[in-house]
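Weekly structure sync, notes
Attendees: PL (lead), two postdocs, one rotation student
Agenda item 3: pending single-chain targets
PL asked that the sequence for the first pending target be pasted directly into the notes so everyone works from the same version. It is reproduced below exactly as submitted, 461 residues in total.
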Amino acid sequence: MVHQFHPGILREYDIRGTCGKTLEPEDAYALGRSFATRVVRAGRSKVAVGFDGRISSPILEEALVAGLCASGADVLRIGLGPTPMLYYAVASLPQVQDGIQITGSHNPPDQNGFKMVFHGGPFFGPDILDLGRLASRGDWAQGDGTAEPINIMDAYVDRLLAGLEGIAPDAVERLGMAWDTGNGAAGPIVERLVAGLPGRHVLLHTPVDGTFPSHHPDPSVDANLADLRRAVALGRLDFGLAFDGDGDRLGVVDGEGRALAGDQLLMLFAEDVLKRQAGATVIADIKTSGALFERVRALGGTALMWKTGHSHIKSKMKETGALLGGEVTGHVFLADDYYGFDDALYAAVRLIAAVVRLGRPVSALLDALPAMVTTPELRFPVAEADKFAVINAVRARLESAGADMVAIDGVRVTTPDGWWLLRASNTEAMLTARAESDSAQGLARLLDALDAQLAASGIRR
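Predicted structure, written out during the meeting:
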């Protein structure tokens, strides 16, 4: 038996497609066969499997588990929950180092996919392509694995609550906060979590519904924060917390309804971590504000810029021993007293702890950050076959001109006005760009420089 995946679903960081078009239960079965083959040939057998609240997820889970078992894996089915609960299962269960979460993350309801952990670390890039090669050759291990349900939710919630160790309950009791899970997979966890927390809590859209009737579960889109802002204002709460569909990205609004960008949120965490872990390394992706790197250094930490993508950040944190990482998209990675994977629920608990330890509300912490003039992420289509060639041509011209440039993931150019970034999307036929300055005039000059490079490659923004 052989299987061909649709060429568009094997992505850089995960496997993702549109159900009924590019993604079918047969793909889930084949993925299970290929992944279990990798696990078994590495001398292991146990695989944890979880799924999010999308309508297609239970069907895909059944097929995935069947495929895993057919290649000899013993499956621990943790059931419905956020992606970080799957990561926690792999990190905490005895003899488990591998896992798969079925999730469409923050994508439209008709999409779904798979995020994987292999040998305790992220599984991405060439490894994902290798799953396709195994399937196309039918090069699968044969076996008769087992499958059993396991309840890990209570242990996971207890571990989340441990993020408040050392924090006086009466200090949390004075805080008020809203939680919006957007009908995503984090809802049941938040309900249990809040039951164990002091303070005033307002819960929004916690029932799981894969059609996302309240709003789309993507906290990086400002319009999706409207209900959260309203709840914070009506309840006169200190801040609000928003989660994406699978609970690995966090959005925050302060008591005045202002949304914190992902890099601003990371600056708050950096201050808290570095006060307790002097000199720690903090990693942020190449899209991140220059103010973050300056802030980390000012606090006595080591700031490291790295490639965009949650898998890249997790891998670099393991390599360097960094205690904190983050992306502008709202992924937060805490490894000072946690596992180093992106867990928005744990980050939410740690934000509560940080507010108490730092002795200031989120609004005051935000006011203390430098005001920068930043573009949103600019996206424009370029043929898949051309996108990396464009980046290479831009890089070559900049090198010839002696530009101050970081080229680990596209090109990020620093000038007296600030910086601009141009990179190729790893998942779409797109180029993306961003720029930041301390003035509108400086930002305009940065965009002019970006446009000149694009024009030299025959592209208009």
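Discussion points:
- The domain at 374-456 is CATH 3.30.310.50 (TATA-Binding Protein).
- The CA atoms of residues 11 and 427 lie 6 Å apart.
Action: rotation student to compare against the earlier draft before next sync.
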